[in-house]
Every structure is written in structure tokens, then in C-alpha cells.
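#struct-help
A.M.: can someone run this one for me? Single chain, 415 residues.
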Amino acid sequence: MKDYGDDISCKKTPNVSLNAEITRRKAFASAFVSGAIVSNSMDGGIVANAQQVPTKIPISASWKAVDGLNSNDKIVSFDASAYKAMVDDSSRTPLFKKSIINRLNSAPNGPESQTVLDLGTGPFAVFAIMAAEAGAGKVYAIEGNPEAAASARATIKSSGLSEIITVYEGFSSDITLPAKADFAIAEIVGSIASEEGAYATILDAHTRLLKEPNNPNSWIPNRIQTYAAPSSYTLHNLFQPPEFDWSKLNGEPVRFNCRDEALQLMSNPILLEDITFSEITNNKSFWKKDITFTIDQERLDDNTLIFYDELRKNRLSKSEAEDVSKRTGRAFTGIAMWPRLFLDADEKIQVNSRSYPNGGHQKSHWQTVLPIMNDVPITGLKGGDEVSVNVDFNVGSDILKPPSYRLNGFVTMYN
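D.P.: on it. C-alpha cells below:
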């Protein structure tokens, strides 16, 4: 079986329920206990007809960045466990530290000559403290969440760095700094890269907060991306109408822990979003595009084996596991999305939430986002079939208006 990535234990960002009554993992467990599974290998989904013409099945999903997250109606926010997961993410935090130290040490007049801006410092002010400890002369730390800002001040005080680090509570668009910064640390990257307001925040910082905003060395990270691929999801095949109505999610995506084998990719990933902070402009055209994914037969075969092993581990009988895994391995649920970051101007220091370029499972605090794009799975796909989507992401320039996302398209099955 082809290796698509390491399955490494990881931390998680905020949990998201499927609906008020049942969470994804509870649903999965109850399916095995109650025997509430979909029987026979091809029923319970949309299947291509036998005619010698392509079958095109419409798919769609739309949601806002704040839907289903620990958020208010304006911005994405996080709970204490999520912040801790970010700090403990060994695939992220040490690389940011390396980039901060490299940037400070590269300053012609030494680290102490540098004024640093930390956008979204969080309750532990991790990157602000890293910059101060690495010798920065002054650090401005901005945090929009009042509780997190208060915690950041307490953390900085206990670290003895209050004279170097100043915490500003509020949105960066409402704050005027005493002096412009030499560079900014902006880890405001969502599981869809733009969903935490990075575009609007960086656009505003360009005009007011940085000395040289068009210099790639003025940003950590300098570039963020979102990758995507059509995916299969076990529970979408186990639970179907009328007993379980996926339309009640109202567009809210399912968010997966990075090691969760219940989600598998059906094709090679494609770049969906690409935002370079030093080149950012008030132009959103690159969030509107048409993309076509080609289903990979080798991935379908591998997925079927992975689903079978997982179902057997969860006490399904051999025959039940065979039926469900055969159907699920060839069934489309939605377009999975995840972020990738380039921390330095040379793009040598990279952070991947899934392995690059194949999209395999690996350690990360970021989740994989999966909107359910049809009430029932589209089954019976094979290599060479296509998933075409029109991408319409409205990220906007208003920090207080959450980005919204829309995907519309077709699954085309060739007989």
C-alpha cells in the first residue's frame, strides 16, 4: 500500500459538534454499539447510471469562518485547550522561534535595534516573549480577546519582560502604535488559511503598522496557503437520511483531528488559497477560481483498506466492514482543506498541517476542514472521474466581518 503520510499523535483545536444532539465521535461509537450501519455495498448513496454517458451530480456548500467554532459572530476565537495545543505543536512553535531569532540576528544594528509587532499574541504571548528573550528592543503585542489580553499581561509580568513588551487590547485596525515596527509576527492562520482574518489584518497593517510592509523580511510568516482535495468520510456513509439528516449542519463543516483516519483524500491536493503578506493588495480576484480534481484509483484502493482496518478495530464484523469500506473508499463527501505556511522570505522554513505534497496525516494542531457537499455520499467513483468546483471565497478587508466561503460544482462520473 502506498504511504501517504505518517500517522502521528497530535493536539487539537476546538471541538465542533455535528449538531446539538450528537458529536462526530459519539456518533461513530454508537454506530458500532447499536449496529446502526448502512447495509449492502452500493445502497444508501448516489451511484452512476449504466448509460454510456457521463453522469454529473451537483455538489455545494457555503458557510462563514465563525460557524461551529468557539467564536462570536465577528471573529474566530479559541478556548484555553486550543491555545495550549498551539504552544505545544512541535511542528509549528519551534519553527516560529527559529524564524524570529534568525530575523533579529540579521538586523544590521543588532536585535536590540528592532521593534517587533506580534499580531494576535494570545494568552501566553509566546512569540512576543520569544522576540524579547532573543534581544528585541521593543515588542508590541496586540490581542483582540479581552481575557487573552489580560492573561498575556500577567504572563509577561511574571517573565520580567514588561519593560520590553507592551500589550494592546483590541483589534489591530483600532490601535495606533507609538512607532512602526521593523517586522511583524502574524500567526493568525486558520485551518482554512484566511478564516482568522489574516487578509484584512495584514492589509490594514500594511498601511499603518510596518516600516517596510512590502519587504518579505517584514513578515513571519510571509506567505500562507490553503490546499484542498475531494475526500471520503466514514460517518457520512454510516449515517444517512432519514435517521440522520446532514442538512441540519446548515453548511457548518466537520473539522478533523490531524490523525483521524475517518477522512481520506481521493486525489492529489490542489492549491486553493495563496496569500503573500508582503505583496498583499486590496484585490480579492484570486479567491474566485474554477478547479478540477481527478480521482486517483490508487488512493481509492488504499482508502478502502484503511477504512476496513479502522472499522474492524471498532468491532464491525468482517462482512459489515467489507461492505462499508468498499462503499466508503469510493464515496465522495466534500472538499477537505488545510493550511501551509512559509515563515521566512526564502521560503526555506515551512510549516505543514498535513504532509506536503501528498496531503497525508501528520502531527499538527490545525484541523482539516470538510464541508458536507451532498446530503448523501456520492458512491461508485473510480480513477479518472472528476470533481469540479467553483471557488468563491469572500474574505473582505473588514477585520470585523468574518470571511465567508462557497463551493459549487459537479462530480462527473465516466462510464
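A.M.: thanks! The first strand starts at residue 46 and ends at 47.
D.P.: also worth noting: Residues 80-189 form a domain with the Rossmann fold fold (CATH 3.40.50.150).
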